[in-house]
């Protein structure tokens, strides 16, 4: 959720978020609900309890649809259900990803394809599915979550880094194609955000200290730090921004 900003134009907007029931995605769902938006989200795991909690808190229950985003027909169906519930999707947030670590040696074709199926392919097909409704609504905003990992050239999860670089390229191509229809497409590149998953799996004291040393701002990122930037890209406050890669990382990498 956001304690810093209010974007009045997001009230009543139809928002669709992938992976919107946990980690950064859960914070995004709450952030949009706080703005008065109508939110539908997909998640592979059960997020019924989270949706109920949000509904009670904001008197505006998000629509949770259980869905594996590697199953494109199911993902398309979920988006149709969201549009039935809240009207044409006008804000699409492609957030879901899997940053599983792996070595070069022994990594199989099937594992590589699955990484792309989770981390890159859905971004294209959700945009394809949302574009028609956004045209009817005379505009919309697509926000694709990339990562600074590819700008840093991080090792240890090559398929993830590759997919995140691809998302930035996809974003720029879609921005050019969809711009005449007043559909904006931007990439958001978080730094190392300390979700429960990160803390449980990879955030050793040594690695945390080393990463913080790279940041200009000496404070680790939390999921809520990504919310305000996402709301900005969704809002007409950024109406002339498209095809951009916006970094929120505490000052590790630089653009421009």
Automatic annotation (TrEMBL):
Gene3D superfamilies: NAD(P)-binding Rossmann-like Domain (3.40.50.720). It comes from the Bacteria. Residues 13-195 form the Ketoreductase domain. CDD domains: SDR_c. InterPro entries: KR_dom (IPR057326), NAD(P)-bd_dom_sf (IPR036291), Sc_DH/Rdtase_CS (IPR020904), SDR_fam (IPR002347). Pfam families: adh_short_C2. Belongs to the short-chain dehydrogenases/reductases (SDR) family. This is 3-oxoacyl-ACP reductase. It comes from Maritalea porphyrae.
